[in-house]
């Protein structure tokens, strides 16, 4: 049996995990992400942590297949990172650099794309070969797996589905600078924004009017308790999500759609609501798509990162 | 040098072409598509035509690499045709069937997808590895090439981009049964429909009011002649196309977008108009996409079909 590491670099913490070749997660831990000075300490910190782990556990280096790493930005299939704004990184080949620091083979990818690969391998998309993964969190991200392989895209931005346009009449700008992106409506932040707009524009009584700091969870909870305005707000979100996912599926024709991220904790009501609208818009030949919830939570990225080095 | 055939089955004619291994088109001809009795004569007609061609030209069978064939319906990567309504075909493995009839290896794909592969290999997308192809004709079709390979999709409907939703408020139904599909606005038929609606809803003088049977070409001609209503109609079409193509590119992150089909004869004004709106909507990392016009015309499908058997 051989082993390897999966690493998921976030803006505040780096997640590391030690895997057996068959994908069993044996151990996991975190490091703070040191973004000072253009994030120059991040890769040396990871290398030192891997080295310390091997020494502490007396693991011989020849048992290690390599390190897979996911980063919050575009990564091309040759390992070139194309700017990670959160980390202070510019353009460089992360595979070569981390390999130089550790002596192990390294494969890299975008974090959301690798979470997709992880979910496809061991999570909600297990058993499916071609999968669309959407993470509905603070923002909306995603990744596409086709025939078991990650879609990197020409500029490392394959599966950047959160910035597809869903409402060309939007007046507010998205974080990306465009207007009307999916992220503005279907992220946790977007759902709260829609809820606030809804409540401001009517007088209908609602449980949500008593909530001090309105959260996405509060909207789902109120809807579950039968609150009509909350239900209408979510119906709007489901309509956006259904149309958005139908459009992606009409391009990719996947076996499965997997929903992850904080918003997906809403579970079955979310899946059912989205599928209802999805079926209105999807092309008939593409319609028999399986919908599932992500199951790996915050570990999806390290699973996917490790899967990369197995290929 | 070896040789092979590319076949493109349409609703009224079957196009056949004889290629050298390097992709030189040596000869081409057509047969009528006999759709009677569930289209049972179509494959035997093709087999007989191939056989007659080889005999007439005294070409030894061992020089033939095989036959590639494109059909107007979903085709899975294993060669299963999943209903071709225009041809009367149900579900069967076309690769096995045509191979049995001819004795040659056969590879099959969807016609628009194979036109994409053809344009990527020898046409407007030459030199690009990952390409989105949109055919703007009577309908809107398309195909996706990723890393030089066709995206078949799970149900043989990869790249069915003409039925992406672009206007969820549409009241009229699309041919596919849904509402608000791209095809309803950006096909030749759709452009004429938009033009008629525009002219009915205003009194602005326009060259188009004198045209008896309004065509898509008439709208482009009037716009080129400076007709304001025609220009506004096309601006609407460019806005739809720009948004639609940006959404596809945000999923795929291709090197190039190639536009084909009758509408693409409008040429540079179309390319410029579309790109102007595309840049408003596309995610910044994906933005450096090359736009090009298709160059192979009606031969794109046979080029792509032949390319399939080279793989």
- State the low-pLDDT regions of chain A, or none: none
Number of discrete helical segments of chain A: 10
CATH class of the largest domain in chain A, anyone?
Answer: Alpha Beta
CATH architecture of the largest domain in chain A: 2-Layer Sandwich
Strand order of the largest sheet of chain A: 3-2-1-4-7
Amino-to-carboxy terminus distance of chain A: 16 Å
| Biggest interface pair, counts | A-B, 45 and 45 residues
CATH topology heading of the largest domain in chain A: Nucleotidyltransferase, domain 5
Task: Kindly provide the radius of gyration of chain A, computed on alpha-carbon positions and rounded to a whole number of angstroms.
Answer: 20 Å
Helicity range of chain A: 25-40%
Overall average pLDDT of chain A: 96
Going by helix content, strand content and strand pairing, the class of chain A is alpha/beta
Walk me through what this model shows.
2 copies of one chain form a homodimer. With 311 residues, chain A is an alpha/beta fold. Chain A folds into 2 domains: 3-118 and 299-309, ATPase, nucleotide binding domain (Nucleotidyltransferase, domain 5, 2-Layer Sandwich); 126-295, ATPase, nucleotide binding domain (Nucleotidyltransferase, domain 5, 2-Layer Sandwich), CATH 3.30.420.40. Helix content of chain A is 37%, strand content 23%. Chain A has 10 helices and 12 strands. Chain A has helices spanning 36-39, 42-56, 94-102, 111-122, 183-186, 188-200, 216-224, 228-252, 268-281, 300-309, and strands at 3-9, 13-20, 25-32, 64-71, 80-84, 89-93, 106-110, 131-136, 140-146, 149-150, 256-260, 290-293. In chain A, the strands form 3 sheets. Chain A has a 5-stranded mixed β-sheet. Chain A has a 5-stranded mixed β-sheet with strand order 10-9-8-11-12, with helices on both faces. A two-stranded antiparallel sheet of chain A has the order 5-6. In chain A, α2 (42-56) runs parallel beside α3, α4 (111-122) crosses α10 and α7 packs across α8. Chain A is globular, with a radius of gyration of 20 Å. The two termini of chain A are 16 Å apart. The mean pLDDT of chain A is 96. Chains A and B meet through α8 of A and α8 of B.
């Amino acid at each position: 049996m051989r082993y390897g590491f999966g690493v998921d670099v976030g803006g505040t913490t780096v997640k590391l995990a030690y895997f057996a070749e068959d994908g069993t997660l044996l151990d996991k831990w975190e490091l703070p992400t040191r973004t000072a000075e253009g994030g120059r300490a991040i890769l040396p910190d990871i290398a030192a942590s891997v080295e310390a782990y091997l020494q502490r556990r007396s693991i011989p280096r020849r048992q290690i297949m390599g390190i897979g790493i996911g980063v919050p930005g575009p990564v091309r299939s040759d390992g070139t990172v194309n700017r990670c704004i959160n980390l202070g990184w510019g353009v460089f080949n992360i595979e070569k650099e981390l390999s130089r620091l550790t002596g192990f083979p390294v494969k890299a990818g975008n974090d959301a794309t690798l979470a997709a690969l992880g979910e496809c391998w061991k999570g909600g998309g297990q058993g499916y070969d071609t999968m669309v993964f959407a993470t509905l969190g603070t923002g909306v991200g995603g990744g596409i797996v086709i025939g078991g392989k990650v879609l990197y895209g020409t500029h490392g931005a394959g599966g950047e589905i959160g910035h597809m346009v869903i409402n060309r009449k939007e007046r507010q700008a998205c974080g990306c600078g465009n207007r009307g992106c999916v992220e503005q409506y279907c992220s946790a932040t977007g759902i709260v924004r829609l809820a606030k707009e809804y409540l401001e524009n009517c007088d209908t009584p609602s449980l949500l009017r008593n909530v001090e700091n309105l959260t996405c969870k509060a909207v789902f909870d109120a809807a579950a308790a039968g609150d009509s305005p909350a239900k209408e707000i979510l119906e709007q979100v489901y309509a956006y999500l259904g149309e958005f996912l139908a459009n992606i599926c009409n391009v990719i024709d996947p076996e499965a759609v997997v929903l992850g991220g904080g918003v997906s904790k809403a579970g079955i009501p979310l899946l059912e609501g989205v599928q209802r609208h999805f079926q209105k818009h999807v092309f008939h030949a593409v319609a028999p798509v399986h919908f599932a919830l992500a199951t790996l939570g915050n570990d999806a990225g390290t699973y996917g990162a490790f899967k990369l080095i197995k290929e």
